[in-house]
Amino acid sequence: MTPKQKEKHFIVVEVDCDEEGVIIGCQLEAIMSKRAIEMDWRELKDRGSWLQGWK
Predict the structure, then answer these.
(1) Measuring CA to CA, which residue among 53, 47, 42 is closest to residue 10?
(2) SS3 state of residue 28
(3) Cα distance between residue 41 and residue 55, in whole Å
(4) Which residues of 22-51 are buried (b: 16+ CB within 10 A; e: fewer)?
(5) Which contacts (CB < 8 Å, 24+ apart) does range 37-46 have?
(6) What is the pLDDT of residue 8?
(7) How far is it, in rounded angstroms, from Cα 24 to Cα 31?
C-alpha cells in the first residue's frame, strides 16, 4: 500500500504452477515502469501490503 519507487499499480502477468497445477508463484509488472517482480502468490493476500483494484 505504500508505493516504492513511485510504483503504485501492478498487474499479474504470469502465474507459475507445479506439475500438478498447484500455484507456486506469480510475476507482477508495474504499470508505469514495466518493472517485473516475482513473488509468492500468498503475499498478495496481505492487506497491509496490497489492495485489489485501482485506488
Answers:
(1) 53
(2) strand
(3) 21
(4) eeeebbbbbeeeeeeeeeeeeebeeeeeee
(5) 37/10, 41/15
(6) 81
(7) 23
pLDDT in tens, 12-39: 999 999 999 999 999 999 998 999 999 8
Give me 13's grid cell.
502477468
Q: What is the pTM of this model?
A: 0.73
19: left (phi over 0), alpha (psi -120 to 50) or beta: alpha
Gap between the Cα atoms of 25 and 54, Å rounded: 22
CA-nearest of 13, 14, 32 to 23 is 14
